Amino acid sequence: MVVYSFYIFDRHAECIYKRRWLPRPTSTVGKSRSDTVSGAAPTGLGQTVRSTDDDSKLVFGTVFSLRNMVRKLGGEDDNFVSFTTSQYKLHYYETPTNTKFVMLTDLKSPSMRIALQQIYINLFVEYVVKNPLSPTEHPGGVGVNNELFEESLEQFVVRAL
Amino acid sequence: MPDNTRGVFSLIIINKAGGLIYQREFQSGLRNLSTNDYLVLAGTFHGVHAITRSITPKIPISQPAPSPATSSTGITAPAASGYSYPNPGVPVSGLDYLETDKFRMTCFQTLTGTKFLLFTDPLTGSVDTIIQKIYELYADYVMKNPFYQIEMPVRCEAFDRHLGAWLRGRT
């Protein structure tokens, strides 16, 4: 199973954490805008260069629209779980406080709902929420800047998944 | 209604411009929306479908022989050849299946861009055959109808009849 990327959005639609596991020249934590200028982004084939920043906005727009669509059709207690295209699978988990966890994996992966829940309970709550120094709101995209969280997330994805 | 159409909640057909051209409910299970809401849903889905195609992860094609010095620092020279997709042999598609707690939505896009959305029970099997059959019926009774105006709402009695009959006959 391959994990391509992972995003956390807070209740104000702000992307507070993103991480990619693609073999990119710079595959570090979000907020680093360096991979837009790395030159690895292809400019041929009529494709424009799109930064990871824009990617996270597109991901948010997608899950936000689909979640609302699902709520409308299935009722308020229905939950959007995942979607599949011919190339990847997107998993979604939302906490009661509207923090959204999104993970993009390959098609062979099983349901990652438990895994995302585990990341929330065991990593996010433990290391970010319980950290008195970490901000509760992230105006202007400060983001989760927490070594412990990042390290354990890395380990979780590499080992457990 | 007996549960002969078991598992199939409803069908939506969206034209290539994102307009709703057909909507029919076979079995209750989803909440009823107004016609206006269905139009909004069709338009929204049309956009989301395009976005899901564009956020496909791109895997940079690695250099044939990266020098160990660059790979250890994690900084590789920009690959001139660009990237490949996770499943290189398969054409990049937008959203195909959407899963929720209560239903599963299957999207089938024809070569001309018309989208068929089928809402089924999460446990219904062989959704692909159902949607293929629906496409076949659409081709037979809508596209071959000389009075049907292309891209306009589908009002073909024969299509309705055969669709209902086929879904009812399916076990």
From TrEMBL, chain A:
List, alphabetically, the Pfam families matched.
Sybindin (PF04099)
Which range is the signal sequence, renumbered to this chain? none
Localization terms from the record: Endoplasmic reticulum; Golgi apparatus, cis-Golgi network
SMART domains given for it?
Sybindin (SM01399)
The record's section on SUPFAM superfamilies has: SNARE-like
Identify the keywords attached in UniProt to this record, alphabetized: Endoplasmic reticulum, ER-Golgi transport, Golgi apparatus, Transport
Q: What is its main location?
A: endoplasmic reticulum
Q: One Gene Ontology cellular component annotation?
A: Golgi apparatus
Q: Does the keyword Transport apply?
A: yes
Q: What are the BP-aspect GO terms? A: endoplasmic reticulum to Golgi vesicle-mediated transport
Output the superkingdom of the source species: Eukaryota
Q: How does it assemble?
A: Part of the multisubunit transport protein particle (TRAPP) complex.
Family from the record: Belongs to the TRAPP small subunits family. BET5 subfamily.
Q: What is this protein called?
A: Trafficking protein particle complex subunit
Its source organism is Penicillium rubens (strain ATCC 28089 / DSM 1075 / NRRL 1951 / Wisconsin 54-1255) (Penicillium chrysogenum)
Automatic annotation (TrEMBL), chain B:
| Gene3D superfamilies documented for this protein | 3.30.450.70
Q: Does the keyword Transport apply?
A: yes
One GO biological process term: endoplasmic reticulum to Golgi vesicle-mediated transport
User: What cellular component terms from Gene Ontology apply here?
Assistant: endoplasmic reticulum; Golgi apparatus; TRAPP complex
Spell out the CDD domains in the cross-references: TRAPPC4_synbindin (cd14856)
Give the keywords, sorted.
Endoplasmic reticulum, ER-Golgi transport, Golgi apparatus, Transport
Q: Which Pfam families match?
A: Sybindin (PF04099)
Q: Does the keyword Acetylation apply?
A: no
State the oligomer form and interacting partners: Part of the multisubunit transport protein particle (TRAPP) complex.
Could you tell me what this protein is called?
A: Trafficking protein particle complex subunit
Q: Which organism is it from?
A: Penicillium nalgiovense
